[in-house]
Amino acid sequence: MDGHHRGQLNMTKLYWNAEAETLAAAALRALHTRKLHTALNYVATHSKFYQAKFAGAGVSPNDFTALEDLARFPFTEKSELRESQLRDPPFGEHRACASAEIRRVYSTSGTTGRPTYIGLTAHDIAQWREVALRAFWASGLRPGAIVPVVVSPFVVAASYADAFETVGTCIPIGVNMTDRLIDAFRFARANTLLCTASYPLHFAAALQQRGIDPKTLGLKLIFAGGEPGASIPSVRQQIEDTFACRMLEVSGNGDYSAMAWGECEHRLGMHFCGQGLIHPELVEPDTGRVIDIVPGAQGELVCTSLDRECIPLVRFRTRDHVVVTHTECACGRTGFGIRIIGRTDDMLIVRGVNVYPSAVRDVIASFAPRTTGVIEIQLHKPPPEGWEPPLQIKVEHTGLADRLTGLSAEIEAKLREKLIFRAQIELVPDGSLPRYEYKAKLVRKIYEG
User: Fold this and answer.
1) What are phi and psi for residue 170, nearest 5 degrees?
2) Same structural domain for residues 359 and 268?
3) What letter does residue 295 receive in the DSSP assignment?
4) What would the pLDDT profile of 10-25 be if each residue is shown by its tens digit?
């Protein structure tokens, strides 16, 4: 299931790796059973972290004989990886290869805590490139793509660059360099953009402030990921109309794989593209119970490394709350599809109702063009008291005065209908709330501590 070199590329092939991406269910099960057995033995032999975890849970690789046996093994929490690195910096006790074999190092964003450092061997780099190419190809990456990539200390931009350089052309761009990004389109003929779901409208506003019509930029394709929202029809339509382009959703994670999910032209949901490299599970967030992957199932995404040397992970809790959109697709890919609803660790509990900030934003974004889609949920007290209704939410409007009458009440009613909680909406002018070039911060704590 190796990737393909540039000389084999053509515009008409349907898949980056047809053998992997169209693997039948029985063959995938057999492949992952075999690879999981090898992976569990590898960490038990090479990782002090997993030696201790397995001993503490009373399990060993010998206990794994069928796919269902994976549920007997303990989860890996992000907090455990941070603690492991504090005990044995910089890569932690979970490092499973010699330091001399590490060829690339990332740090995570640290948005929910202390940054963690992730090492990749040459083999790991090749595997991340492979799964990224499957996902991006599914979402429309083809020869001729010219892609500006924002280079930052925490985004795994190099893995994206590897994929783009394999197929097309990559233009490294510095962080917070809006003018350089604009120039990449105007003068270097960039035509593709990888960004968060909330960034395109921020970028469009920056263009318009400079007197540039977004439609003249030559942008043909947007890969949107990093946060929920790219699949909302109203948001997607607004962005596609603004730039006269197509937008498809992709997703990955700096811990288990930079990119692993890609939406095909049928837009049913993001296909799993990590066959043979990553084993995904769906679990009930509170109990950890494994949930069958069938259309409509919802749960937390958990991932296990199948072929990784430096930082292999066993049952890593991504904290992404997802819904399975489909298990069959006309494109022929057999990887099941998902949409990301939100993060289980960002969830608010309003009178017993689970509320995801991204879902709140999605409802409010459906009121475009009267709203910009930019919101801020304000918590004036710590939870659980701060979660008591009505939630205070600031919502940007677009200044269409003749269409603002009753808008607050409409939004409040829609939130009650769709998400079953009560909110108090404060409309503020376009540009009042902060913009973020990386992940949008939807909740603001208006209290100390």
Assistant:
1) -115, 135
2) no
3) T
4) 667 999 999 999 999 9
